[in-house]
């Protein structure tokens, strides 16, 4: 069972709900947190369950549930942020609760953010999957810089939302960004946020701070790799230690 605690009323008629859970390279978590910050979304509700991990997130000396809903009425945008990967037992109830909340608030669309393991070669690609065929056609006409995912497998909350959206004729879009699994991939998150920005022409999201984070992280990783290299001992010195 999923409990929803509402803190304030918000008018989201014909709005969009963006959903992000931890994924490959933390790309979804980075992107959704960045969107909440840059769009100045306010917390309007929290989600909780006996199946959620017993953790409390502390921000500005205030405890927060590990799954929260933020929104901004004038933009008609809500964001559902989760700090944990839902267990298989809770995935379906959580996805259905999200869909139910979106429908109750008159929202017209859900966008979920996911990560794909990057090969590490070439440009980072963003892909999309839509529950409705007509929305896939719209993406082509809008010339969004995301490719259709023709073959693949999506799991977790995003998978259930896509399937439920298809069954209920509700618009669900999953955006998948290629990301490096061994580091928090800010560069891939920036690409993902860039596509979200294209979908909402009425807003402008600056991704340059995320790209700066990515550069700093890459430099740090290079230094760590250099430090981790084993020292080469000259042959004549190596003999002394035999």
What would a concise description of this structure say?
This protein has helices at residues 27-38, 88-104, 133-142, 156-168, 186-199, 208-228, 235-240, and strands spanning 3-6, 16-20, 42-48, 57-59, 62-64, 67-72, 77-82, 109-117, 126-130, 147-148, 171-179. It is of the alpha/beta class and 242 residues long. Strands 1-3-6-7-2-8-11-9-10 form a nine-stranded mixed beta sheet, sandwiched between helices.
Let me know the CATH homologous superfamily: PAC-like subunit
The number of helical segments is 7
Oligomeric organization of the protein chains? single chain
CATH topology: Rossmann fold
Largest sheet features: 9 strands, mixed
Using only C-alpha atoms, the radius of gyration works out to: 21 Å
Number of strands: 11
Query: Could you say how many structural domains there are in total?
Result: 1
Low-confidence stretches: 231-242
- Spatial strand order of the main sheet: 1-3-6-7-2-8-11-9-10
What is the typical, i.e. mean, pLDDT?
Answer: 87
Note the gap between the termini.
64 Å
Order of helices and strands: EEHEEEEEHEEHEHEHHH
Shape call = globular
CATH class: Alpha Beta
